[in-house]
Automatic annotation (TrEMBL):
Record-given protein name: DUF1917-domain-containing protein
Species of origin: Aulographum hederae CBS 113979
A UniProt-annotated Pfam family: Bles03
InterPro entries: Bles03 (IPR015034), TIF_eIF4e-like (IPR023398)
Coiled-coil segments: none
SUPFAM superfamilies, A to Z: eIF4e-like (SSF55418)
Similarity comment text for this entry: Belongs to the UPF0696 family.
Length: 314
């Protein structure tokens, strides 16, 4: 049964006034005030401490384990940058400030960083310059071998040339990845290409996943270049979801499995998404590179299928 309040007891904002009869009439309020003034805590506990409920409570309190939860100081590597989410911004405010389809004026990319500090200290000191010098020399050596093979066999068919160069190409790939790990150039990204009518949903889910520490180290969204979907079909935009270390296959798998849980990656379809290491990006290795290297080093289909097979065996 509701409490009826006279109109004169309502404030202009529609709230019950503290002067209303909600607390009782004058006689009831006088009685409660008298009890409050007469209450003596020490006297109360002198008598009540002997009661069974008080004894049981004190006994339980002695066996309570206090868990010391460490304070986590959030951090944003993009703090102060207009093209990135700020720590104080809720995701909805960030997306409102930088709507993905209306932010070309801000630059080529919109960024969001994982605000939770990584417990992994990394495998080595970052030295992109040393990596580039050594890796570019390896690419040059490979191209020299290719030219020598072509000059020595002017009639060689392209397929035969590719086949003969495969051992050298595989060795070059392994060496590039080894140099990347050795020099700390280990970041990489899963690449999503949502269609224009699905961009807001996909980018929002990615931002939420990064901010909640469910995905990788960060993500970025391409504000321009409505590239066609793999050369055909309607235009799409690129979203990159980063991980710290491409050689950490467990973490790479964890992130793509989370993307699959978010319905951003088809688990069973023949077509998935691909992972590219930043080492390849720095070297300009795209899909049409002259070394005939695959531009990506992982596919979601291969990783998810492998994870499924392991679970099946288990």
């Amino acid at each position: 049964m509701g409490i009826l309040v006279e109109e004169e007891q309502m404030t202009a904002d529609g709230y019950i006034s503290e002067e209303s009869s909600f607390y009782g009439d004058d006689e009831e309020r006088h009685h409660l005030n008298a009890r409050s003034e007469a209450f003596r805590p020490q006297k109360y506990w002198t008598s009540h401490a002997k009661q069974i409920n008080s004894i049981a409570y004190n006994e339980r309190a002695q066996h309570v384990t206090v868990v010391d939860v460490p304070h986590v100081e959030l951090h944003n590597i993009y703090e102060g940058q207009e093209a990135a989410r700020q720590l104080h911004e809720p995701i909805h405010a960030f997306l409102k400030r930088l709507p993905p389809l209306d932010s070309r004026h801000i630059g080529p990319w919109i960024w969001i960083a994982n605000p939770y500090p990584s417990q992994d200290k990394g495998k080595g000191k970052y030295n992109q310059q040393a990596f580039m010098i050594a890796a570019e020399q390896g690419l040059a050596d490979y191209m020299s071998k290719k030219r020598s093979l072509e000059e020595g066999n002017p009639e060689i068919l392209p397929g035969t040339l590719t086949r003969k160069l495969r051992p050298a190409r595989d060795q070059m790939k392994d060496e590039i990845l080894r140099l990347a790990v050795e020099n700390g150039v280990t970041s990489g990204k899963w690449m999503l290409f949502p269609k224009m009518d699905d961009i807001h949903r996909v980018w929002r889910l990615v931002c939420e996943g990064v901010a909640e520490n469910r995905l990788g180290t960060g993500a970025k969204f391409a504000t321009g270049s409505d590239r066609p979907d793999r050369g055909r079909g309607p235009p799409v935009r690129l979203i990159c979801v980063y991980t710290k270390d491409f050689s950490d296959r467990n973490d790479v798998r964890r992130v793509v499995e989370e993307l699959a849980e978010m319905a951003l990656v088809p688990r069973d379809a023949s077509r998935g998404i691909y992972y590219k290491c930043d080492a390849y990006t720095h070297l300009g290795i795209e899909s049409d590179n002259p070394y005939h290297l695959p531009a990506s080093i992982y596919s979601s289909k291969d990783i998810l299928d492998a994870a499924k097979a392991v679970k099946w065996k288990g």
